């Protein structure tokens, strides 16, 4: 079988978006004398989480965005974490706040997220941000779904009337991805761990968004010829949630893993941090 799919290049699109964010960050610094600043908060010493935070801070630095890191011990309580986030929420030198998660089983993550002021919720994790997104009101979107939408837009994927199947329904990925697709007039179906016949649903999809975290769960044979396949999954060994090799021979457009959705997530985080700074420094109409 021959490859039918065009590869969606998240790396180069993300680079363009980061360059735009960097230009805007420079303009903010020049006009206000203040550089946009992202606070990153990490509880404990999980190596993967620490790597993610380091990557995000390094990208910030390259884009001219300051970052301030707060590393808290693994023994931190929910109340202490909330105190830290509330402090950052009222600190005028901080424009965006990122709480790296998972925070550990003893932390009430939802309560912690809600301590982030909506205007600083550049990772789009609060109930306020989710509601604003759902009502199509101004606000920050969850970064990975936001990145998926930017990819679809950049590749001119027409969504109105299309059947979009989102596999996964987490609060930060699957669920908001479906809401954003709905806002673009797609007909949206969610699948999850209790879905009885995943293959049958995927076979009907014009657009598949895989957001599960299980290597090659989506069978290539189930991809409808010409469908758009967005694989947000990231599993050990650089493997996505879609059986990529087979999907390549059926899809019309497909994201690689890595180099598809991953880089877009950070690009949206930086864009939203710069936007938050612009808003807070009174530049929202520029
Ligand atoms: P979660 O574990 O929070 O959610 C996984 C979802 O998949 C749940 O809704 C779950 O269903 C569903 N699911 C589990 N098993 C199946 C199955 N057999 N069939 C159908 N659905 C199933 O994960 P996240 O949403 O946080 O992350 C998903 C993936 O995306 C991971 O690989 C993660 O690494 C990656 N990711 C990538 C990012 C990026 O920047 N590229 C950012 C964030 C995540 P149920 O609700 O019923 O339990």
Automatic annotation (TrEMBL):
Q: What PANTHER family does the database record attribute to this sequence?
A: C-1-TETRAHYDROFOLATE SYNTHASE, CYTOPLASMIC, C-1-TETRAHYDROFOLATE SYNTHASE, CYTOPLASMIC-RELATED
Record domain Tetrahydrofolate dehydrogenase/cyclohydrolase catalytic: where: 8-123
- Residues forming the Tetrahydrofolate dehydrogenase/cyclohydrolase NAD(P)-binding domain are 142-280
Name of the featured protein: Bifunctional protein FolD
Q: Where does NADP(+) bind?
A: 168-170
HAMAP family for this protein? THF_DHG_CYH (MF_01576)
Keyword annotations from UniProtKB, A to Z: Amino-acid biosynthesis, Histidine biosynthesis, Hydrolase, Methionine biosynthesis, Multifunctional enzyme, NADP, One-carbon metabolism, Oxidoreductase, Purine biosynthesis
Quote the subunit structure annotation: Homodimer.
Name the pathway: One-carbon metabolism; tetrahydrofolate interconversion
Q: Show the catalytic activity.
A: (6R)-5,10-methylene-5,6,7,8-tetrahydrofolate + NADP(+) = (6R)-5,10-methenyltetrahydrofolate + NADPH; (6R)-5,10-methenyltetrahydrofolate + H2O = (6R)-10-formyltetrahydrofolate + H(+)
Entry similarity comment: Belongs to the tetrahydrofolate dehydrogenase/cyclohydrolase family.
Any signal peptide, and if so, which residues? none
| Biological role stated in the UniProt entry | Catalyzes the oxidation of 5,10-methylenetetrahydrofolate to 5,10-methenyltetrahydrofolate and then the hydrolysis of 5,10-methenyltetrahydrofolate to 10-formyltetrahydrofolate.
Listed InterPro entries = Aminoacid_DH-like_N_sf, NAD(P)-bd_dom_sf, THF_DH/CycHdrlase, THF_DH/CycHdrlase_cat_dom, THF_DH/CycHdrlase_CS, THF_DH/CycHdrlase_NAD-bd_dom
User: What EC number(s) does this enzyme carry?
Assistant: 1.5.1.5, 3.5.4.9
Gene3D superfamilies hit by this protein: Leucine Dehydrogenase, chain A, domain 1, NAD(P)-binding Rossmann-like Domain
Q: Which CDD domains match?
A: NAD_bind_m-THF_DH_Cyclohyd (cd01080)
């Amino acid at each position: 079988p021959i490859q039918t799919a065009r590869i969606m290049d998240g790396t180069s699109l993300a680079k363009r978006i980061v360059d735009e964010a960097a230009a805007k960050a420079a303009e903010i610094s020049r006009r206000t004398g203040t550089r946009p600043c992202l606070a990153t908060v990490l509880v404990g010493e999980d190596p993967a989480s620490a790597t993610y935070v380091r990557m995000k801070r390094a990208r910030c630095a390259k884009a001219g965005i300051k970052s301030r890191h707060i590393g808290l011990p693994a023994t931190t309580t929910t109340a202490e974490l909330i105190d830290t986030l509330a402090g950052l929420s009222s600190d005028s030198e901080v424009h965006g706040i990122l709480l790296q998660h998972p925070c550990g089983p003893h932390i009430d993550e939802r309560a912690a997220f809600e301590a982030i002021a909506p205007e600083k919720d550049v990772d789009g994790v609060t109930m306020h941000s989710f509601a604003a997104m759902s009502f199509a009101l101004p606000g920050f979107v969850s970064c990975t779904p936001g990145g998926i939408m930017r990819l679809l837009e950049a590749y001119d994927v027409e969504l109105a009337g299309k059947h979009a199947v989102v596999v996964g329904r987490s609060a930060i990925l699957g669920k908001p991805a479906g809401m954003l697709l709905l806002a673009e007039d797609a007909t949206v179906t969610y699948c999850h761990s209790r879905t009885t016949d995943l293959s049958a649903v995927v076979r009907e999809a014009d657009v598949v968004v895989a957001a599960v975290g299980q290597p090659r769960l989506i069978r290539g044979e189930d991809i409808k010829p010409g469908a758009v396949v967005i694989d947000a999954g990231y599993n050990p060994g650089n493997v996505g949630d879609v059986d990529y090799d087979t999907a390549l021979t059926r899809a019309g457009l497909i994201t690689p893993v890595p180099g598809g959705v991953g880089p877009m997530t950070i690009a949206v985080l930086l864009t939203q941090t710069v936007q938050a700074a612009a808003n807070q420094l009174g530049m929202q109409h520029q």
